[in-house]
Amino acid sequence: DRLKSWPFDDTLRRFDEFEDTLRDSLPESKVSTGAVSKVVEDLQRRSFFSSVPMLLLLAVMIVTVLFYMSMTASYLVQSRERDAGLLRSRGVGTVQLFRISFLEGLVLTAVAVAIAIGLSLAIVALAGKLPYFREMTGGEFMPIALSPTPFLVSAGAGLLCLVILVIPGALSALSAG
Fold it and tell me: What pTM, to 2 d.p., does this model score?
């Protein structure tokens, strides 16, 4: 069980150190952990190749989400051009239009970030009920360890969404003037 928890590189290093230590303490002995090292290297190679499809799927998902977000921002800008023109004709300045666009984007993003964290944790926990994970979880909820990573990822995605929503709106407000 302790061997399973070691990273691949650490496992190979420890086996090499084990061979060296035994050779130093018993100079006439012959020690070989080659078979175990070969198995570990094979597992390392398989682990890498099994992660490639997941990375490709993740990249396609990210590109798709960014594409749809940019389309949404484009439609939002087009729908707000008339509003920006009306506000400009009534004396609203560029800074005030930017502030309105920023506050609107901030509210939308803050609500989405707050919902996303709880929703993602709930979905991961519910994944334990799926037949694919049933052997691992015994049909119970998937255990969740709270760490800063989901909060940082959510904040980063929220910041990116805020930029995608605010920058086109601000540029539209500048062109309306």
Answer: 0.56
Contact 76, 165 (CB under 8 A): yes
Burial 156-169 (b: 16+ CB within 10 A, else e): ebbeebbebbbebb
Cβ atoms 164, 69 nearer than 8 A: yes
Q: Which of 86, 72, 68 is nearest to 173 (CA)?
A: 86
Residue 85, classed as helix, strand or coil, is helix
- Token couple for 143: 């255990």
The tokens describing 121, both together, are 């944790």
Q: Answer yes or no: are the C-beta atoms of 47 and 22 closer than 8 Å.
A: no
CA distance 76 to 167: 12
Task: Decide if 123 contacts 144 (C-beta within 8 A).
Answer: no
pLDDT, tens digit, for every residue of 119-177? 988 998 998 888 887 887 888 888 888 889 888 989 998 998 888 888 887 777 677 55
* CA distances, 150 to each of 54, 62, 87 (Å): 19, 16, 39
Separation in Å, CA 82 to CA 70, 79, 142: 20, 7, 49
Average confidence (pLDDT) over 87-96: 83
pLDDT digit string (tens) for 39-77? 777 777 777 777 788 888 999 999 998 898 888 878 877
